Amino acid sequence: ATNSEVVDLGHPGPFLSGGSSSSECPYDEADLEHWSDLFGFDASGDVELPEGKKVLLSACSVVSRSLDIVTIPSSSELIFADEPIHLSVSGMDVRGKLRIGSETCRIRSEASVTLRGERPLKTTPVPAPQVKGIFVTGSLDIHAVEFYHTWSRLAATATPGDRYILLQDVVNWDAGSTIVLTTTQLKDARDWHQNEIFTVVDVKRASHLSHGVTAVYLNDTVKFTHYGRKEYQAEVGLLTRRFKIQGEDTSSEPTDTEPLACSSSQYASFPCPESYLTGYGGHVMITGVDAKARVSGVEFYRMGQTNFEGRYPIHWHLAYDGGEGSYVRDSSFYRSFYKCVTIHGTNGVLVTRNVAFDVIGHCLYLEDGVEEFNNISYNLHAHVHPIGMPPGEGRSSQYLPDVLSGPDLATASDATASGFYISNAYNYVIGNAAVGGYSGFQFPIFPSAIGLHRSSPTSPRSGRTLKFDGNSCRSSGHWWGHAGCVYLGGLFSHTDDESSDDPNETPRMVYNAGRTINGLRPCQRPLSPDGWCSKWERDDCDGTYPTACYAYLELSNLKVALTNVGVMNWGRRGRLSKFEAHDLNGGPAAEVFGDNSITDLLVTCETDNEQFRFCDPTSPHNGGGQGQEPLDSRGCSSFDDRFWESRRKVVQWYDTGMNTVVTNATFRNCDPETWRECSSDCAKSSIFESVTHSNQFLPELLSITAGIRYEDDHDDQGSKKDVKKHLIYFSSPNTQTMSGRTVGWLDLDGGVCDSGKEVPTILGSNHDAGDWWRLDDDDDCEVAGVNSELYCCPARERLIASLYFEWDAELQAQLKGNGGSLCENGSTESHSDCPRVGFIARFGQTDLQREGLKLDARPELVGPVPTFEAADGFGWFLALDRGAPVELRLRRLQIHHRAVFVMALAYPKGTSFALSTSNDDPNRYGCGSLYLCEIDYARTYDTQRLVSQTGAPTYYVDEGQNASYDVLYFRVFQRDERRLSDDVDWDSDWTAPMFTNDYLDARPGDWGLPYRFDGPVVTVKADCPADGAYCAGGFVDAGVPPLLWRAAVAEPSPTFSSTTSKPTPAPTTTTSKTTHPMTTTTPTAVPTAKPVP
C-alpha cells in the first residue's frame, strides 16, 4: 500500500525477523558477583555497589520493595540477568555502568525499573537528579527485544465495528501488546479526540491484499472512523515493550484532572490553566561529556515531572559533542507528564523509531538552541497537550500576548506544546509523524541561545535545516488561526528581570507564539550583531543566495492534513518542495513571506473523511465532554465552526513582502459547491486569496505561478466547471485600497485561469483599478474570482514590475509607519485616511482617470511592463495632482532584466534634469575603488537609445511644440546592487539575480523573480521653479503618451520568447485630449524600426 501521491515519507527499512539475538551477553561474563551475595535478599535503604565490582542482579535477588538510592561507583557495573526482574527504587546514581542487555543480547523477559517518590509541594528548588530518577554520569545500556515496525500506517480505512485493522508494514508485535490507533479528526485534545487504545489479539500476514500488508486483530471493535485512503492514513503505534522504566502508580499520576476542560467566548472547550499540573513520574538524565546512553526497546511509562525543569523521561544534559554514539530507539513513551526526549546542550544524539502517546508539554525538545547534528527520524508523536490555555483563543490576529514562565509553566513555550520542538534547525529531522499538539513541528525563533547557553555565539535564528524531509503532520494547529502543522515562529527569549541574587539562576523566560517580523533568517554563517546575515563576506559564502550570506530554510517531502495552516513561516527565505496538504481548516496550505518557493504541490480541499463538530456533545469522541455543561449549554463558537462556515483558501498572496513562486501544483476538489457541508462564508472559499485590507502594506513584491492544474473539476453531468468562479477572493471586498488595486501576478502557462489557451497569463486587479490590468481591448481578458476580483489576460510578451515612489518628504512623514497617521493598516470601508495624490496610466491609454490607476499617498505600485518582444511598447506615465516632482526617487525595484520599463512625467516647459542610479547606503555597500555609489544617466536625443538594453542608462526629453510642458522619459533598470562599477557590462553586471526553483529552471527561457534589493535607487532631479516638493504651476495637463512602438498583434505563443527577434513597429498616433509632441516633430518621432537591444 502506498501512503502518498507526491511526497516520499521515507521508511526506516525492511522488516527484520527476530530482534532477540543472544550473543556476548553481559550476564554471561566472567567475574560477576551476585547481588544476593553482597546485600542478601532483603536489602533496604540506600545501597552502593562496592568499588571495582561487576554485580549481577537476578529475579530472585529482588525481594525488597524498600530500596532507596542505588549508587553504581565509577569503577563498578550493575548487570541485569535476562529474567523477570522488577526493581523498585527511589532513584539510581549511575557513575559507572548500568547494563541491561546489549545490542547483541537483547532482554527477552518482561522486566522493569519502578521509580518511587512523592511530589514536593513546590517546583523549586528542583530535587537532586537521583531523586525518582536514573542519573547517569557514566554509561547506560538498556536493550530489550526490538519490535519491527514500532509503528505503521493503515492500509485501508478502519470503520466502526471492525475487529481488525490492516497495516502497510509487516510487524512482529506480541499478542497482549497495547497499541494506539490515532485520530483522523480536526481536533485532538483530552476532552475531545478519536484516538483509540487496543490490545493485540493476533497478527497475520495479508499478502493476498498487497505485498507487506498485515492484519492486526483487536480485543474490541473500532468505535470511530480512522481514515486510510490515498491522501493520508491514521498511524498505529506499538506502546508495549518487554522492558519498562516507569513511575510508581500511586505517586506519579496527576491529581488535578478536574475540570477536564474549560470554555470561553471563543472556544467551546480548551485545556484548563489549573489542571494536569501535578504529574510526578520518573526521569532519566544523562549528563557530562563522558556520559553515554544507548537505549533500545524500552517502554517509558508514567515518566516526567510536570514543571520540574530537567526532569524528563529521558534527557541528555550538557554532553556537548559527547552525545555522538548515544541513542534512544525503538522505544515508547506512554502517559508522559513532562515531555518525552530532551536534548540539552548536546550534539549528535540519535532518536529514531520511537512511539509517544499522551504527552504533556513538548515531546521532542531541543532546549537552548545550541543543539545541532542530532538525528531525529521515523518517530511517531501523538496526543500532545499544551500546559494551560493555549495562546490564540480563536483569534485570527497575527499578534498574541506574551507568556511568562513561572511555577505553573516552567517552560513558557509549553503553552504551545508540539510533537517536535526544534530550537535549532541544523539537525536531521526525517520521516517523523506528528498527530495533535499546538503544532506538529515547531521551529521557534531564538534571537540568541537561551538558558545556560545565553552567552553562546551560536545563532539559532539564522540556522538552516540540515535536513527536514519525509515528515507528516495531522490534527494539529487547532488553537489559533495562524497555527500550523509546521510552525516556524514563536519568539522565545529571556526577560530583563535580573532580580535574583543567584548568579546560576537564569532570568525568567518570555515567549510569544504570535508573529515575529522577519522571523527565522537562515544564513550561511552566524548573524551579525544587528541581527542580520553578515554582509559582504564574499569569501565565506557559497553564492547560493545572491545577497550577503543568506540561505534558505528548506523543507521537502512534507504532508499535512486537518490543520489550520499547513506551513506557517514568519521568516524571510524558504524552499518547500514535494508537499501535500489535505482537509485544511481554513488554510492556506503554506503561509509564507519574503523569498519563498513552493513546488510539486498537491492539495485536496476536501477528502472523503467526514469531520465531526467537536463542540457538539452528540458527536462521537473519547475523552469526556459528552453531556458536560459547557458543551451542552454553549454549542459551537464561530472559531469552532470555521471548517464548516468560514472561508477556506489554498494559496495566500500576503499584502507585503511576498516574493513567491508556486509551481507544479494540483488542486483537487476545491469547489465549495461540492463539499458535504459548507454554509455562510464557506461558500466564498477560493483557491487563491489576496490580503487587500491595507493602505499601509501593499503587495510590494512579485509572485509567479506555473504548472497549475485542477482535478475533480467536472460536474455530475461531465461538464467542465468554471474554475474562475472560485479562483480568488479579496479579503476586504468592500474596501477601496491600494493593496486591492495592485494585486497581480504572472502565470507562465495559463493554467491558473484554466481558460484552455495554455498561454502565459497576467492576472491583475479588477477592484477599483480602472483598466490598469486590462491589457487588451479584445475579449481575451476574462474576469475571475468570487466577486470578479481579477482579470486574466494573455501576457503576450509582457511582464510585471514593482517599485516605490518618493517625492514629497512632508507627505512621507505623514504616513503611518513614518510617524504619521495617513494610509494606515486596517479594513475600514472607505479608507478616507489615505488621500489621492495622482494617477498613473500605461502609454497609449486615452483617459487618465478612467483607464489609469488611482494613486494614494503611499505610492507603492505593481503593474505590467513590456519586453522587447511585446507588440505594444508601453511605459508608465505618472501624473501628480500637485504638479511635477522636483525630486523623484524610485526605490525597492523589482524588474525582470528582459523588461523594457520606461517611465514618463510631464514637466513645465524648459525644465532641465539630472538623473542617476545609486546605492542608498554607501557605508553598507563598500563604495570605493571596486564599487561606485552613483552613476549618472546621460541625455539622449535618440529614442532607440532610450530603450536600448546596452550601454549606460539614458533619459530623453520630448520638447515637442507644446508651449507649456515637456515630457521626460527614462528607462528604469534593476541591477545587481553588488555590481555598480565604472566598468559596467549592462548585459550581466546590471542583471539582478533571479529567485527561481528547479521547475522554472527546467523551462525554456530565463524565468523566476528578480530579487528585490533595498540599496539601488533611481533619482530624478528637476531644475524648475519650485513650490515645495513640486514644480510651480500645479498639475501639468498633458495627455498620456503614445506607445513607444506598435506592431501587428500576433496570436499568443505557448511560451514566452527566449530569442531577441523583434516585430516591425507601425507608426504610432495618439488620441490623447492634447496632441503629444513626441508624435509631431522630426527629432522626436517614434522610431520606424524597433530598437535593437
Characterization of this structure:
The chain is mainly beta and 1093 residues long. The chain has 10 helices and 71 strands. It has an 18-stranded mixed β-sheet. A 13-stranded parallel β-sheet has the order 2-4-7-10-19-22-25-28-32-35-38-42-44, with no helix packed on it. Strands 1-3-5-8-11-20-23-26-29-33-36 form an 11-stranded parallel β-sheet. The longest helix is centred in the middle third of the chain and has 6 residues, at 629-634. The protein is elongated and about 115 Å long.
Reconstruct the topology from this structure.
Layout: E1 32-34, H1 35-39, E2 45-48, E3 54-57, E4 67-72, E5 77-80, E6 86-89, E7 91-94, E8 97-100, E9 111-115, E10 133-136, E11 139-143, E12 151-153, E13 164-167, E14 178-181, E15 196-205, E16 214-218, E17 235-238, E18 243-247, H2 249-252, E19 283-287, E20 292-296, E21 298-301, E22 314-320, E23 327-329, E24 332-336, E25 341-346, E26 350-352, E27 355-360, E28 364-366, E29 375-377, E30 380-385, E31 403-404, E32 420-421, E33 428-430, E34 433-435, E35 441-442, E36 467-469, E37 472-476, E38 484-488, E39 491-494, E40 509-512, E41 553-563, E42 565-569, E43 573-582, E44 590-591, E45 594-604, H3 629-634, H4 642-645, E46 651-653, E47 658-668, E48 688-690, E49 703-711, E50 728-730, H5 738-741, E51 744-747, E52 761-765, E53 782-784, E54 790-794, E55 798-806, H6 809-813, E56 836-842, H7 848-851, E57 853-856, E58 860-866, E59 876-880, E60 887-894, E61 902-908, E62 912-919, H8 922-925, E63 934-936, E64 938-939, H9 943-946, E65 954-958, E66 965-971, E67 994-995, H10 998-1001, E68 1009-1010, E69 1016-1023, E70 1026-1027, ...
Parallel strand pairs: 1-3, 2-4, 3-5, 4-7, 5-8, 6-9, 7-10, 8-11, 9-18, 10-19, 11-20, 18-21, 19-22, 20-23, 21-24, 22-25, 23-26, 24-27, 25-28, 26-29, 27-30, 28-32, 29-33, 30-34, 32-35, 33-36, 34-37, 35-38, 37-41, 38-42, 41-43, 42-44, 43-45, 45-47, 46-48, 47-49, 48-50, 49-51, 59-61, 64-65
Antiparallel strand pairs: 12-17, 13-16, 14-15, 14-17, 15-16, 31-40, 39-40, 51-52, 52-54, 53-54, 55-58, 55-60, 56-57, 56-59, 60-69, 61-66, 62-63, 62-69, 65-66, 67-68, 70-71
